[in-house]
Design brief:
The chain is α/β, with parallel strands linked by helices. The protein is built from 13 helices and 12 strands.
Length: 337
């Protein structure tokens, strides 16, 4: 019986990411599993060389910088049966034409969730110690804080409100378990029993905002969540409360958030904003109660290798005749990022 031919695969992404996603050991595993030219990376599907390759491609390995897989691209790739995405969301990548073709889509979004959850845990712990306020004061006064200034500092019994039991949200809930927190959760798709199993108390959004010391956003960026934290809901967060956003800036009304932060009533740790980046004149850059980072919570540097490893493992499963472990289904897109 003839040996099955390995599937023809091609990379489609910004080539700058390739060495970090697929360092030599992972690239070697890819080459053992499929027919792949590691030096050929598609950036533009209209390129004649890309069109020639697409005609023979069965597996597309995509990443950040990959153009949308529209009907024209799919028409040029009649043998394509699998898309393995070495990044997070596929929302901007795939369209109806792809689902109509029955092409299997897999994403490394689970691997990308871990560093976001780790970043968030670190920020929750630092916020609970009022680290950023003490740092700003220390830079100015060079004096150690008084007992009065640390009276409300600490993480014992701190109430943490998690909005969204997404992959990031669930991973964060796991990471929070060892700490002496009271954890609250809002997610319209989660039952009280599921929330309890995750280590949290399920609450309506408004109640979570009222009762949390630190609120962390992990809901997807979908029409239902657009500006979900508007002026009225932000006003429910207690004075001195902390908002952490590692999801998307669109989930928070930007003017309302700016007003709250300029007033000094709330603190914020923002890895994402709207717009992104903020304009140079934004007061959020210089407010002492705002800690801004440039969208670094997700996979960066050596963390990209984890995403590449997920793709390699998915391809190995495919070749072995096994179902994908990280499949993205069309029906999921209405409520995931």
């Amino acid at each position: 019986m003839p040996t099955p031919q390995p599937p023809r695969a091609v990379f489609a992404m910004d080539p700058v990411h390739l060495p970090l996603l697929f360092p030599p050991p992972l690239m070697a595993r890819l080459k053992q599993t499929c027919d792949l030219d590691p030096g050929f990376v598609v950036r533009d599907f209209a390129d004649p060389a890309a069109a020639e390759t697409l005609a023979r491609t069965e597996v597309l390995i995509t990443g950040w910088g990959c153009p949308a897989l529209d009907a024209c691209v799919l028409a040029a790739a009649p043998r394509l049966r699998t898309v393995l995405h070495a990044a997070g969301s596929v929302r901007s990548l795939v369209g109806e034409a792809l689902w109509e073709r029955g092409i299997t889509v897999s994403s490394a979004v689970t691997g990308n969730a871990l560093p976001v959850a780790e970043y968030t845990l670190a920020m929750i712990l630092l916020a609970g110690k009022d680290t950023f306020t003490h740092r700003e004061r220390f830079r100015t006064t060079h004096a150690y804080p008084t007992d009065a200034e640390t009276a409300h500092t600490g993480n014992v019994g701190r109430r943490i409100g998690i909005i969204g039991a997404s992959r990031v949200g669930r991973r964060l809930l796991e990471l929070l378990r060892p700490f002496d927190f009271t954890v609250l959760l809002h997610d319209p798709y989660v039952s009280p029993a599921t929330a309890a199993a995750l280590g949290a108390e399920l609450l309506p959004l408004e109640d979570l905002l009222r009762h949390s010391d630190i609120v962390s956003l992990h809901a997807p960026d979908i029409p239902e969540t657009y500006r979900m934290l508007d002026a009225g809901r932000l006003a429910l967060i207690r004075d001195g409360g902390v908002l952490i956003n590692t999801s998307r800036g669109a989930l928070v009304a930007p003017d309302a958030l700016t007003d709250e932060l300029v007033s000094g009533r709330l603190h914020a740790i923002l890895d994402v904003t709207e717009p992104e980046p903020l304009p140079a004149g934004s007061p959020l850059y210089r407010l002492p109660n705002v800690f801004l980072t440039p969208h670094i919570a997700g996979s960066l540097g050596n963390e990209l290798e984890r995403l590449g490893r997920i793709v390699v493992e998915e391809l190995e499963r495919l070749v072995a005749g096994l179902p994908p472990a990280h499949e993205v289904r069309h029906s999921d897109l209405a409520r995931v990022a």
